[in-house]
C-alpha cells in the first residue's frame, strides 16, 4: 500500500498464494479458538482432550454421527447462502429466521388439500412454495433499501420478528391441528409427500438440493454476467448505474434469492424432518447462517464444508451434555470463540495482503 | 383486596403498566447503543451484554442478597464484554457488524453455561415504588407500581442528553463519531473514546439485562430475553441518535408490546401472537415513513459504518 513503484529483482523461492495464506489464517484461528475453549472447559474441571474427543465422536465419529451432522448441514448451507448472496452486493442481512419459518409454514400448508397425488409434483410444490414465500418476504428488504433507503440489516431483523410472530399466530391459531396438544403444529403432511432419503446413506435429499444450489451459486457468481453485475452493484451503485445496470433490480433480486434459500431451508426441514410446521423451526438458524457465511467468507463452495463443521459441532452438543454433564450451551461458546477468532484472523490476513502490495 | 370491575377502562391501565415494564430494558439498551453509535461504532451484539448482565445480576443478587449490588455486577459484566468488543473492533479492518454478532453468540453461550445452576434458586428482586397508594382501584395501583430501574432510566436519558450537548467529553464523543479526521486534527484520542463509548454502552445493556432477571419477569432462564438487545440498533435509528428520543421510542415500543398481554389479561386471547408483532410493525412503519430515498439518515453520525 502506498508504494507506487516496486522493482523485484529476485524471485522469492516459495511465497504462499492468497488461498494458501487464507487457509493458513483460518486454521490458526480455529486452533486459537480451540485453545481458548480448552481453557473454558478446564475451568469446568473437565479434561479438554476428552471434550474434543467427544465433539469428534458426536459429530464425525460414526456413520450415525455423520447422518445427524449432514442432516443438520443441509439447512445450514441454505441459510449460509441466504447471508452470502446479498453479501456479494455488500449487504449484511441477519433476519433469515423469519423467511425460514414462513417458508416452512408455506411448505407445510400447500400440500394439505391434495390427497393421493403422485409424490414428485407434490414435493416440488412444497419446496417451490417455501422458496417463493421466502423470496417474497425478503424482497421487501431489498425494496425498502432501494425505495426508502432503509438499512437492510435493520429491516430484515424487524421483518424476522414480524414473520415469527405471524408464524406463531398461524400455527397456534387458524392453522393448528387440534390433535397437536403439547406442541402446537399444523396438520401433518401426507407421509407419501415427505422428501425421500438419499439411497445408501440415511440422510434426506435436502442435502443434495442444498449442495447443488451452493455449486450453482458458485458457478453463477464466478462465471456469468449475473455474478459480475452483482459484484459491481456491491462495489459501487454509482458505477453500476453508469454502466447501465439497474441497481434496484439487482438489489431486490439478490435479497429475494436469499429469501428463497432461507424459505427453501424451512420447507426442507418441514417436508424431510418435522412433517409439520411447529416451533422446532425456530432454532437459531438466522444466527447459524451468519456464522456459516462469515466463516466461509461468503464463498459459496466453502459454505459446504463449513456447514458440515458447524452441523457436526451442534450435533455433538447433546453428547457433551450426556457424557460430561456440561451445559448444552458449551457448544455455543465454542461457536462464538471460533467466530471471533476467524473474524480477527480475517482482518489480520487482509492487512498482511495489503502489506504485500496485492 | 377486592377486584373492582372497571370494565374496559382497565385496558389502557394495563397497557400503561405493561409499557413501563416492557420498555425499561429497552431504555437502557437503546441509550447504551446511542452512546456507542455516537462515537462512530456500532455494537450489534448488545444482546450478548444484556443476557450476560441478566445472568451476572441474578447471580450476585442471589449470593449477596442485595439486588442493587446485582445491578452493579450486571453493568460491570456488560462493560467488560463491551471492552472486549471495543478492543476487537480497534483492530484495523475488522468488521464491527460481524464482531457484534459473534460476541452475541459468545455472550449468550457464556451466560447460558455459567447460569445453568441459577435456574432453580430465587434471588431477591428489585424494589418497586407504589405511586398509586392513594387509589383504591387495584388496576390503577398495579399500573402505577413502578419499578425503580424505570425511574433510573428516565434520569439517565436526561443525563445522557446533557452529557452529549453540554459537556466537553460529550462534544469529543460526537466529534469522534462524526469525523475521525477532525477528531484527530483536534488531538482527540479516537480509539480510546470509542472503546470507552462501547464500554459505557455495554454497561447500560448489562443493567437492562438485570431488569429482566431481577424485576420483570424476575427470574433467570435461557428464554429470558426475546431479542431486547438486538432491537437496540433499530430503536436508535428510530430515535435518530438522540437520547431523549430513545426514551420515547422505548416507551412507544414498550406500549405497543404491552397491548397483547393486556388484551390477554382481559380475556381476549385470539390474537395474542399477532399483537407480539405490533412493536416491530410500528417501528418498521415509522422508519419507512420517516426516511426517504433522497435524504437517508441525515442525523446519523458520520463515521457510522451501517449507513454507507
From TrEMBL, chain A:
InterPro entries for the chain: ABC_transp_permease (IPR001851)
User: What are the annotated GO cellular component locations?
Assistant: plasma membrane
**Species name for this entry?**
Pseudomonas batumici
The lineage's top-level taxon is Bacteria
Q: Name one Pfam family in it.
A: BPD_transp_2
- MF terms in GO: transmembrane transporter activity
Keywords per UniProt: Cell membrane, Membrane, Transmembrane, Transmembrane helix
Q: Where in the cell is it found?
A: Cell inner membrane
Output this protein's name: Ribose ABC transport system, permease protein RbsC
Q: What is its main location?
A: membrane
Topology relative to the lipid bilayer, per the entry, is: Multi-pass membrane protein
Automatic annotation (TrEMBL), chain B:
Record field: transmembrane: 6-32, 44-63, 69-91, 98-119, 139-164, 195-214, 220-239, 246-264
List, alphabetically, the Pfam families matched. Answer: BPD_transp_2
Q: What is its main location?
A: membrane
Where is this gene product found? Cell inner membrane
Annotated keywords: Cell membrane, Membrane, Transmembrane, Transmembrane helix
Q: Name one GO molecular function term.
A: transmembrane transporter activity
A cellular-component GO term for this protein: plasma membrane
- Protein name (database record): Inositol transport system permease protein
In its UniProt entry, the species of origin is given as Pseudomonas batumici
Specify the taxonomic lineage: Bacteria, Pseudomonadati, Pseudomonadota, Gammaproteobacteria, Pseudomonadales
Amino acid at each position: 500500500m502506498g508504494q507506487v513503484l516496486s522493482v523485484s529483482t529476485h524471485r522469492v523461492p516459495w511465497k504462499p498464494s492468497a488461498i494458501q495464506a487464507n487457509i493458513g489464517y483460518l486454521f490458526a484461528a480455529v486452533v486459537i479458538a480451540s485453545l481458548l475453549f480448552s481453557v473454558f472447559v478446564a475451568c469446568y474441571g473437565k479434561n479438554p482432550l476428552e471434550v474434543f474427543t467427544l465433539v469428534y465422536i458426536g459429530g464425525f465419529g460414526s456413520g450415525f454421527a455423520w447422518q445427524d451432522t449432514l442432516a443438520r448441514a443441509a439447512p445450514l448451507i441454505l441459510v449460509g447462502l441466504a447471508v452470502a448472496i446479498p453479501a456479494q452486493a455488500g449487504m449484511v442481512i441477519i433476519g433469515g429466521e423469519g423467511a425460514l419459518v414462513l417458508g416452512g409454514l408455506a411448505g407445510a400448508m400447500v400440500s394439505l388439500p391434495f390427497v393421493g397425488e403422485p409424490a414428485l409434483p407434490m414435493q416440488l410444490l412444497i419446496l417451490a412454495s417455501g422458496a417463493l414465500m421466502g423470496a417474497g418476504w425478503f424482497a421487501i428488504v431489498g425494496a425498502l433499501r432501494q425505495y426508502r433507503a432503509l438499512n437492510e440489516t435493520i429491516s430484515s431483523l424487524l421483518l424476522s420478528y414480524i414473520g415469527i410472530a405471524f408464524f406463531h399466530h398461524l400455527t397456534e391459531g387458524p392453522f393448528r391441528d387440534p390433535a397437536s396438544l403439547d406442541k402446537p403444529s399444523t396438520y401433518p403432511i401426507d407421509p407419501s409427500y415427505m422428501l425421500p432419503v438419499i439411497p445408501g446413506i440415511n440422510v434426506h435429499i435436502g442435502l443434495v438440493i442444498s449442495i447443488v444450489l451452493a455449486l450453482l451459486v458458485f458457478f453463477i457468481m464466478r462465471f456469468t454476467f449475473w455474478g459480475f453485475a452483482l459484484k459491481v452493484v456491491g462495489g459501487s451503485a454509482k458505477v453500476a448505474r453508469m454502466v447501465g445496470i439497474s441497481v434496484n433490480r439487482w438489489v431486490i433480486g439478490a435479497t429475494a434469492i436469499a429469501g428463497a434459500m432461507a424459505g427453501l431451508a424451512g420447507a426442507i426441514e418441514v417436508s424431510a424432518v418435522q412433517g409439520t410446521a411447529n416451533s422446532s423451526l425456530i432454532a437459531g438458524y438466522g444466527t447459524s447462517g451468519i456464522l456459516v457465511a462469515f466463516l466461509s467468507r461468503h464463498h459459496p463452495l466453502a459454505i459446504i464444508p463449513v456447514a458440515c463443521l458447524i452441523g457436526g459441532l451442534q450435533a455433538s452438543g447433546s453428547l457433551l451434555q450426556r457424557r460430561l454433564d456440561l451445559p448444552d450451551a458449551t457448544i455455543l461458546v465454542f461457536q462464538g470463540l471460533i467466530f471471533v477468532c476467524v473474524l480477527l484472523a480475517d482482518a489480520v490476513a487482509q492487512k498482511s495482503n495489503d502489506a504485500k502490495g496485492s | 383486596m377486592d377486584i373492582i370491575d372497571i370494565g374496559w377502562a382497565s385496558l389502557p391501565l394495563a397497557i400503561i403498566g405493561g409499557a413501563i415494564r416492557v420498555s425499561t430494558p429497552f431504555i437502557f439498551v437503546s441509550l447504551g447503543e446511542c452512546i456507542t453509535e455516537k462515537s462512530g461504532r456500532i455494537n450489534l451484539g448488545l444482546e450478548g451484554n444484556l443476557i450476560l448482565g441478566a445472568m451476572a445480576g441474578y447471580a450476585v443478587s442471589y449470593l449477596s442478597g442485595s439486588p442493587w449490588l446485582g445491578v452493579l455486577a450486571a453493568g460491570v459484566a456488560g462493560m467488560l464484554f463491551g471492552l472486549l468488543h471495543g478492543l476487537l473492533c480497534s483492530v484495523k479492518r475488522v468488521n464491527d457488524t460481524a464482531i457484534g454478532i459473534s460476541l452475541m453468540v459468545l455472550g449468550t453461550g457464556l451466560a447460558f453455561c455459567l447460569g445453568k445452576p441459577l435456574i432453580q434458586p430465587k434471588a431477591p428482586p428489585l424494589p418497586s415504588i407504589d405511586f398509586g397508594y392513594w387509589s383504591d382501584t387495584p388496576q390503577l395501583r398495579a399500573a402505577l407500581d413502578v419499578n425503580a430501574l424505570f425511574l433510573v432510566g428516565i434520569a439517565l436519558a436526561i443525563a445522557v442528553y446533557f452529557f452529549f450537548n453540554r459537556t466537553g467529553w460529550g462534544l469529543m464523543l460526537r466529534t469522534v463519531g462524526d469525523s475521525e479526521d477532525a477528531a484527530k486534527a483536534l488531538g482527540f484520542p479516537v480509539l480510546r473514546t470509542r472503546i470507552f463509548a462501547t464500554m459505557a454502552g455495554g454497561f447500560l445493556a448489562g443493567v437492562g439485562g438485570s431488569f429482566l432477571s431481577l424485576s420483570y419477569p424476575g427470574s433467570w432462564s435461557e428464554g429470558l430475553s426475546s431479542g431486547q438487545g438486538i432491537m437496540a440498533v433499530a430503536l436508535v435509528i428510530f430515535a435518530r441518535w438522540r437520547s431523549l428520543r430513545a426514551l420515547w421510542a422505548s416507551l412507544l415500543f414498550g406500549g405497543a408490546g404491552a397491548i397483547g398481554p393486556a388484551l390477554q389479561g382481559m380475556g381476549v386471547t385470539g390474537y395474542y401472537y399477532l399483537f407480539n408483532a405490533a412493536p416491530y410493525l410500528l417501528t418498521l412503519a415509522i422508519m419507512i415513513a420517516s426516511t426517504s430515498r433522497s435524504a437517508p439518515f441525515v442525523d446519523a453520525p458520520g463515521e457510522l459504518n451501517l449507513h454507507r
